[in-house]
Predict the 3D structure of the following.
Amino acid sequence: MPAMSNTSLPRARPLQGMVFVAVAAALWGTTGTAQALAGGALSPLWFGALRLVFAALFFLAFAAATGALSRAAFSALNPRALMGAGLCMAFYNLAFFAGVQRTGVGVGTAIALGSGPVWAGLLQAVFHRQRLSGGWWAGTGLAIAGGVALSLGGSGMQFSASGMLLCLACGLSYAVYALLNKQMVGQAPAATLTLGAFGVAALVSLPAAAWQAGWPAPGLSDLVATAYTGVVTAGVGYLLFSQALRHIASATGVTLALLEPVVAFALAVLVLGEPVTSLGLGGLALVVAGVWGVARSELARPAAPSRPSTGAEPGLK
Protein backbone atom coordinates (compact mmCIF):
# COMPACT_ATOMS: atom_id res chain seq x y z
CA MET A 1 0.00 0.00 0.00
CA PRO A 2 1.50 3.37 -0.92
CA ALA A 3 2.46 5.82 1.76
CA MET A 4 -0.35 8.21 2.62
CA SER A 5 0.08 11.96 2.68
CA ASN A 6 0.16 13.81 5.97
CA THR A 7 -1.07 17.01 4.32
CA SER A 8 -4.60 17.88 5.35
CA LEU A 9 -7.21 19.09 2.89
CA PRO A 10 -9.22 22.27 3.46
CA ARG A 11 -12.12 21.82 5.87
CA ALA A 12 -13.96 25.03 5.08
CA ARG A 13 -17.36 23.29 5.02
CA PRO A 14 -17.36 20.23 7.32
CA LEU A 15 -21.14 20.37 7.70
CA GLN A 16 -21.54 20.17 3.92
CA GLY A 17 -19.17 17.21 3.85
CA MET A 18 -21.22 15.36 6.45
CA VAL A 19 -24.45 16.07 4.56
CA PHE A 20 -22.85 14.64 1.41
CA VAL A 21 -21.92 11.44 3.26
CA ALA A 22 -25.43 11.17 4.71
CA VAL A 23 -26.99 11.44 1.24
CA ALA A 24 -24.48 8.92 -0.14
CA ALA A 25 -25.28 6.50 2.69
CA ALA A 26 -29.00 6.90 2.01
CA LEU A 27 -28.39 5.97 -1.64
CA TRP A 28 -26.20 2.99 -0.66
CA GLY A 29 -28.97 1.82 1.65
CA THR A 30 -31.29 1.24 -1.33
CA THR A 31 -28.95 -1.32 -2.92
CA GLY A 32 -30.29 -4.35 -1.08
CA THR A 33 -33.90 -3.44 -1.76
CA ALA A 34 -33.18 -2.93 -5.45
CA GLN A 35 -31.50 -6.34 -5.62
CA ALA A 36 -34.41 -7.98 -3.79
CA LEU A 37 -37.02 -6.36 -6.04
CA ALA A 38 -35.18 -7.58 -9.15
CA GLY A 39 -36.04 -11.14 -8.16
CA GLY A 40 -33.88 -12.55 -10.95
CA ALA A 41 -31.47 -15.43 -11.15
CA LEU A 42 -28.35 -13.28 -11.37
CA SER A 43 -25.72 -14.44 -8.89
CA PRO A 44 -24.58 -11.97 -6.20
CA LEU A 45 -21.05 -11.95 -7.67
CA TRP A 46 -22.33 -10.93 -11.08
CA PHE A 47 -24.70 -8.41 -9.54
CA GLY A 48 -21.73 -6.75 -7.87
CA ALA A 49 -19.53 -6.94 -10.98
CA LEU A 50 -22.18 -5.48 -13.32
CA ARG A 51 -22.88 -2.77 -10.74
CA LEU A 52 -19.23 -1.76 -10.99
CA VAL A 53 -19.42 -1.76 -14.81
CA PHE A 54 -22.45 0.55 -14.84
CA ALA A 55 -20.76 2.77 -12.26
CA ALA A 56 -17.61 3.02 -14.40
CA LEU A 57 -19.72 3.93 -17.46
CA PHE A 58 -21.51 6.61 -15.43
CA PHE A 59 -18.20 8.08 -14.24
CA LEU A 60 -16.92 8.04 -17.83
CA ALA A 61 -19.95 10.00 -19.07
CA PHE A 62 -19.84 12.40 -16.13
CA ALA A 63 -16.11 13.05 -16.50
CA ALA A 64 -16.52 13.69 -20.24
CA ALA A 65 -19.45 16.07 -19.67
CA THR A 66 -17.66 18.08 -16.97
CA GLY A 67 -14.24 18.31 -18.58
CA ALA A 68 -12.59 15.96 -16.09
CA LEU A 69 -11.65 13.42 -18.78
CA SER A 70 -8.20 14.70 -19.64
CA ARG A 71 -4.64 13.41 -19.59
CA ALA A 72 -3.65 16.26 -17.28
CA ALA A 73 -6.28 15.27 -14.70
CA PHE A 74 -5.21 11.62 -14.66
CA SER A 75 -1.49 12.45 -14.66
CA ALA A 76 -2.02 14.49 -11.49
CA LEU A 77 -3.14 11.36 -9.63
CA ASN A 78 -0.74 8.99 -7.91
CA PRO A 79 -0.99 5.87 -10.10
CA ARG A 80 -0.24 3.49 -7.23
CA ALA A 81 -2.88 5.13 -5.04
CA LEU A 82 -5.40 4.98 -7.90
CA MET A 83 -4.66 1.32 -8.57
CA GLY A 84 -4.88 0.57 -4.87
CA ALA A 85 -8.26 2.29 -4.58
CA GLY A 86 -9.59 0.29 -7.54
CA LEU A 87 -8.33 -3.01 -6.14
CA CYS A 88 -9.86 -2.17 -2.76
CA MET A 89 -13.24 -1.46 -4.34
CA ALA A 90 -13.11 -4.70 -6.34
CA PHE A 91 -12.09 -6.71 -3.28
CA TYR A 92 -14.82 -5.06 -1.20
CA ASN A 93 -17.51 -6.29 -3.60
CA LEU A 94 -16.09 -9.81 -3.98
CA ALA A 95 -15.17 -10.34 -0.31
CA PHE A 96 -18.53 -9.07 0.94
CA PHE A 97 -20.62 -11.46 -1.14
CA ALA A 98 -18.30 -14.38 -0.36
CA GLY A 99 -18.28 -13.56 3.33
CA VAL A 100 -22.02 -13.20 3.81
CA GLN A 101 -22.56 -16.46 1.92
CA ARG A 102 -20.61 -18.25 4.67
CA THR A 103 -21.71 -16.31 7.75
CA GLY A 104 -25.23 -15.22 6.81
CA VAL A 105 -26.35 -11.79 5.67
CA GLY A 106 -26.88 -10.34 9.14
CA VAL A 107 -23.59 -11.43 10.69
CA GLY A 108 -21.56 -10.69 7.56
CA THR A 109 -23.03 -7.22 7.13
CA ALA A 110 -22.50 -6.42 10.80
CA ILE A 111 -18.81 -7.43 10.67
CA ALA A 112 -18.09 -5.74 7.34
CA LEU A 113 -19.80 -2.43 8.09
CA GLY A 114 -18.92 -2.40 11.78
CA SER A 115 -15.22 -3.05 11.29
CA GLY A 116 -14.82 -0.34 8.64
CA PRO A 117 -14.78 2.67 11.02
CA VAL A 118 -12.40 0.91 13.43
CA TRP A 119 -9.98 0.12 10.61
CA ALA A 120 -10.29 3.68 9.30
CA GLY A 121 -9.57 5.18 12.71
CA LEU A 122 -6.52 2.99 13.26
CA LEU A 123 -5.15 3.58 9.75
CA GLN A 124 -5.66 7.33 10.02
CA ALA A 125 -3.76 7.36 13.31
CA VAL A 126 -0.88 5.32 11.84
CA PHE A 127 -0.50 6.86 8.37
CA HIS A 128 -1.79 10.40 8.93
CA ARG A 129 -0.64 10.61 12.55
CA GLN A 130 -4.01 12.09 13.43
CA ARG A 131 -5.36 10.96 16.79
CA LEU A 132 -9.11 10.78 16.98
CA SER A 133 -10.93 12.23 19.97
CA GLY A 134 -12.66 10.28 22.69
CA GLY A 135 -15.95 11.67 21.41
CA TRP A 136 -15.25 10.18 17.97
CA TRP A 137 -14.51 6.74 19.42
CA ALA A 138 -17.57 6.87 21.71
CA GLY A 139 -19.88 7.89 18.86
CA THR A 140 -18.34 5.31 16.55
CA GLY A 141 -18.81 2.61 19.19
CA LEU A 142 -22.48 3.46 19.53
CA ALA A 143 -22.98 3.55 15.76
CA ILE A 144 -21.23 0.19 15.33
CA ALA A 145 -23.34 -1.40 18.08
CA GLY A 146 -26.47 -0.03 16.42
CA GLY A 147 -25.36 -1.28 13.02
CA VAL A 148 -24.77 -4.75 14.46
CA ALA A 149 -28.25 -4.74 16.02
CA LEU A 150 -29.84 -3.62 12.75
CA SER A 151 -27.99 -6.26 10.74
CA LEU A 152 -28.66 -9.10 13.15
CA GLY A 153 -32.32 -8.35 13.75
CA GLY A 154 -34.31 -11.34 12.53
CA SER A 155 -31.34 -13.12 10.94
CA GLY A 156 -29.85 -16.47 11.71
CA MET A 157 -26.25 -16.78 12.86
CA GLN A 158 -23.73 -19.07 11.22
CA PHE A 159 -20.23 -19.46 12.58
CA SER A 160 -17.56 -19.49 9.88
CA ALA A 161 -14.03 -18.39 10.69
CA SER A 162 -13.17 -17.94 7.02
CA GLY A 163 -16.37 -15.97 6.40
CA MET A 164 -15.70 -13.67 9.35
CA LEU A 165 -12.13 -13.09 8.17
CA LEU A 166 -13.43 -12.22 4.70
CA CYS A 167 -15.87 -9.71 6.18
CA LEU A 168 -13.14 -8.18 8.35
CA ALA A 169 -10.98 -7.90 5.23
CA CYS A 170 -13.96 -6.32 3.48
CA GLY A 171 -14.16 -3.63 6.16
CA LEU A 172 -10.41 -3.08 5.89
CA SER A 173 -10.55 -2.69 2.10
CA TYR A 174 -13.31 -0.08 2.41
CA ALA A 175 -11.31 1.84 5.02
CA VAL A 176 -8.19 1.80 2.82
CA TYR A 177 -10.27 2.98 -0.14
CA ALA A 178 -11.51 5.93 1.92
CA LEU A 179 -7.97 6.86 3.00
CA LEU A 180 -6.59 6.61 -0.53
CA ASN A 181 -9.54 8.63 -1.80
CA LYS A 182 -8.79 11.26 0.85
CA GLN A 183 -5.20 11.39 -0.38
CA MET A 184 -6.24 11.98 -4.01
CA VAL A 185 -9.20 14.38 -3.73
CA GLY A 186 -6.89 17.39 -3.73
CA GLN A 187 -5.02 16.23 -6.83
CA ALA A 188 -7.81 15.96 -9.42
CA PRO A 189 -11.60 16.28 -9.79
CA ALA A 190 -13.67 13.65 -7.98
CA ALA A 191 -15.01 12.41 -11.33
CA THR A 192 -11.49 11.63 -12.51
CA LEU A 193 -10.40 9.60 -9.50
CA THR A 194 -13.70 7.72 -9.22
CA LEU A 195 -13.55 6.84 -12.93
CA GLY A 196 -10.03 5.50 -12.51
CA ALA A 197 -10.80 3.55 -9.34
CA PHE A 198 -14.08 2.03 -10.55
CA GLY A 199 -12.60 1.30 -13.97
CA VAL A 200 -9.90 -0.78 -12.29
CA ALA A 201 -12.50 -2.41 -10.02
CA ALA A 202 -14.73 -3.38 -12.95
CA LEU A 203 -11.82 -4.85 -14.94
CA VAL A 204 -10.83 -6.98 -11.94
CA SER A 205 -14.35 -8.03 -10.92
CA LEU A 206 -15.61 -9.23 -14.31
CA PRO A 207 -13.12 -12.13 -14.76
CA ALA A 208 -13.38 -12.94 -11.04
CA ALA A 209 -17.18 -13.25 -11.29
CA ALA A 210 -16.90 -15.36 -14.45
CA TRP A 211 -14.40 -17.66 -12.74
CA GLN A 212 -16.53 -18.08 -9.61
CA ALA A 213 -20.06 -18.06 -11.05
CA GLY A 214 -19.77 -18.86 -14.76
CA TRP A 215 -21.31 -16.84 -17.56
CA PRO A 216 -24.42 -14.85 -16.50
CA ALA A 217 -27.86 -14.81 -18.06
CA PRO A 218 -29.40 -11.62 -16.63
CA GLY A 219 -33.04 -10.80 -17.18
CA LEU A 220 -34.47 -7.35 -17.77
CA SER A 221 -35.18 -6.83 -14.07
CA ASP A 222 -31.57 -7.76 -13.24
CA LEU A 223 -30.22 -5.24 -15.76
CA VAL A 224 -32.52 -2.51 -14.44
CA ALA A 225 -31.45 -3.22 -10.86
CA THR A 226 -27.73 -3.34 -11.65
CA ALA A 227 -28.02 -0.18 -13.76
CA TYR A 228 -29.80 1.62 -10.90
CA THR A 229 -27.32 0.49 -8.26
CA GLY A 230 -24.40 1.26 -10.57
CA VAL A 231 -25.49 4.74 -11.65
CA VAL A 232 -27.34 5.97 -8.56
CA THR A 233 -26.01 4.15 -5.51
CA ALA A 234 -22.41 3.69 -6.67
CA GLY A 235 -22.08 6.52 -9.22
CA VAL A 236 -23.79 9.43 -7.50
CA GLY A 237 -23.07 7.99 -4.05
CA TYR A 238 -19.31 7.73 -4.44
CA LEU A 239 -19.05 11.10 -6.18
CA LEU A 240 -20.69 12.62 -3.13
CA PHE A 241 -18.45 10.59 -0.81
CA SER A 242 -15.29 11.73 -2.63
CA GLN A 243 -16.45 15.34 -2.52
CA ALA A 244 -17.22 15.00 1.20
CA LEU A 245 -13.66 13.90 1.96
CA ARG A 246 -12.47 17.36 0.91
CA HIS A 247 -14.03 18.69 4.11
CA ILE A 248 -14.01 15.92 6.73
CA ALA A 249 -11.65 13.25 8.03
CA SER A 250 -11.75 9.92 6.21
CA ALA A 251 -12.46 8.06 9.47
CA THR A 252 -15.44 10.35 10.10
CA GLY A 253 -16.75 9.66 6.60
CA VAL A 254 -16.57 5.90 7.12
CA THR A 255 -18.45 6.16 10.43
CA LEU A 256 -21.16 8.44 9.04
CA ALA A 257 -21.66 5.89 6.27
CA LEU A 258 -23.16 3.63 8.96
CA LEU A 259 -26.39 5.50 8.21
CA GLU A 260 -26.64 3.04 5.30
CA PRO A 261 -28.16 0.17 7.38
CA VAL A 262 -30.68 2.63 8.86
CA VAL A 263 -32.02 3.36 5.37
CA ALA A 264 -31.84 -0.33 4.43
CA PHE A 265 -33.80 -1.24 7.58
CA ALA A 266 -36.50 1.36 6.85
CA LEU A 267 -36.88 0.20 3.24
CA ALA A 268 -36.99 -3.46 4.27
CA VAL A 269 -39.91 -2.66 6.57
CA LEU A 270 -41.77 -0.19 4.35
CA VAL A 271 -41.16 -1.70 0.89
CA LEU A 272 -40.38 -5.39 1.42
CA GLY A 273 -42.78 -5.87 4.34
CA GLU A 274 -40.22 -7.30 6.75
CA PRO A 275 -41.31 -7.30 10.43
CA VAL A 276 -40.19 -4.60 12.84
CA THR A 277 -38.20 -6.00 15.76
CA SER A 278 -37.26 -4.38 19.06
CA LEU A 279 -33.63 -5.22 18.29
CA GLY A 280 -33.88 -3.36 15.00
CA LEU A 281 -35.51 -0.29 16.58
CA GLY A 282 -32.89 -0.23 19.33
CA GLY A 283 -30.14 -0.52 16.74
CA LEU A 284 -31.60 2.35 14.74
CA ALA A 285 -31.59 4.58 17.84
CA LEU A 286 -27.96 3.67 18.62
CA VAL A 287 -26.79 4.43 15.07
CA VAL A 288 -28.48 7.82 15.08
CA ALA A 289 -27.03 8.65 18.51
CA GLY A 290 -23.56 7.48 17.50
CA VAL A 291 -23.58 9.39 14.21
CA TRP A 292 -24.72 12.50 16.05
CA GLY A 293 -21.79 12.13 18.45
CA VAL A 294 -19.29 11.69 15.62
CA ALA A 295 -20.75 14.71 13.79
CA ARG A 296 -20.34 16.88 16.90
CA SER A 297 -16.77 15.64 17.32
CA GLU A 298 -15.96 16.47 13.69
CA LEU A 299 -17.41 19.98 13.98
CA ALA A 300 -15.36 20.58 17.13
CA ARG A 301 -12.11 19.42 15.49
CA PRO A 302 -9.68 22.30 14.74
CA ALA A 303 -9.85 23.31 11.08
CA ALA A 304 -6.90 22.27 8.93
CA PRO A 305 -5.02 25.05 7.11
CA SER A 306 -6.20 25.58 3.55
CA ARG A 307 -4.03 25.02 0.52
CA PRO A 308 -4.51 26.11 -3.08
CA SER A 309 -6.97 24.06 -5.12
CA THR A 310 -5.82 22.10 -8.15
CA GLY A 311 -8.65 23.56 -10.17
CA ALA A 312 -12.38 24.02 -10.20
CA GLU A 313 -14.27 20.92 -9.23
CA PRO A 314 -16.96 20.18 -11.83
CA GLY A 315 -20.39 19.62 -10.41
CA LEU A 316 -21.36 18.67 -6.86
CA LYS A 317 -20.37 22.05 -5.41
